[in-house]
Amino acid sequence: MDNIPIIDTHVHLWHPKQLRYPWLKQVPELNKPYLLNDYAAAYENLDIESIVFVQCDTLPDDGLKETEWVTSLTVDEPRIKGIVAWAPLEEGNQVEPFIEKLAENTLVKGIRRLIQGESVNFCIQSNFVDGVNTLASYGLSFDICIFHPQLANAIQLVEQCPNVQFILDHIGKPDIKNQQFEPWKREIRTLAEHSNAYCKISGLVTEADHDSWTPSDLKPYINHVIDCFGFDRVIYGSDWPVSTLASDYQRWVNTLHDAVSGCSHDELSKLFHDNAIRFYKLH
């Protein structure tokens, strides 16, 4: 692709026989192992230079085990350059020993505690804000994974944690299926005003109609986040294998590439490669 190697900043791997993922029972299409060989088959001939693994919402008791398991995979797959691990940030300052242990692993670059399944006010509770603020001392970022009605409060979280680097997963999961833009559009612009916030262009296909989406359904959303964040703060992610519910890997890459046609080689490189290295401190 334009001689630009891809860094995929949003790869999930899971093994239900080794770790416990309660949510998989609700998604039978995904309720099976998804491992590195499956990922390699999915991206086919694309030049994937590096991978960032993102936690898969195991049972809390398996949170550390998941990080250990993925770390063990790097023996056979050295392209795994980063891990976004799970941590119980709602424990507030009490979470620090847990974070300290994770930070001993140099592959751990950031933390994700899923917000999307929680109440709208979950991420602005004082304990959660305190927990997120502990990440700054360890140089760890935070992946914000929400549905669009939670975006306004996610902005408040960012405002209260000025020393933490944030990245919004899946552009905040707007309602692409119904082509709803507001208040998401306005709130994205507000989030982008914070220099410590980035946006991951990932997961759009699963917010569209799984069976009948077209590139034109996604393009206005892609255009808006790039307009707001600029090419210096947008980062590519596949959201594989969740993305397989609505698209194959190549189709999503082609859709995003076509949506930004006309941009410079440098801008394309920032989106698919350079910004990932800078944000997740991969090298």
Structure description:
The chain is α/β, with parallel strands linked by helices. It has one domain: Metal-dependent hydrolases (TIM Barrel). It has helices at residues 36-43, 63-73, 96-103, 126-133, 151-160, 184-192, 215-229, 249-259, 265-280; strands spanning 6-11, 48-54, 80-85, 108-111, 141-144, 166-168, 197-201, 234-236. An 8-stranded parallel β-sheet has the order 1-2-3-4-5-6-7-8. Strand 5, helix 5 (151-160) and strand 6 form a beta-alpha-beta unit. The chain is globular, with a radius of gyration of 17 Å.
What are its keywords?
283 residues; 13% strand; alpha/beta; TIM Barrel; single chain
Percentage of residues in DSSP E strands: 5-15%
- Count of DSSP helices? 9
The total strand number stands at 8
Poorly predicted runs: none
Task: Please identify, by name, the CATH architecture.
Answer: Alpha-Beta Barrel
| Rg from alpha-carbon coordinates | 17 Å
Summarize the structure.
The protein is of the alpha/beta class.
Helices and strands in order, then pairings?
Elements: E1 6-11, H1 36-43, E2 48-54, H2 63-73, E3 80-85, H3 96-103, E4 108-111, H4 126-133, E5 141-144, H5 151-160, E6 166-168, H6 184-192, E7 197-201, H7 215-229, E8 234-236, H8 249-259, H9 265-280
Parallel strand pairs: 1-2, 2-3, 3-4, 4-5, 5-6, 6-7, 7-8
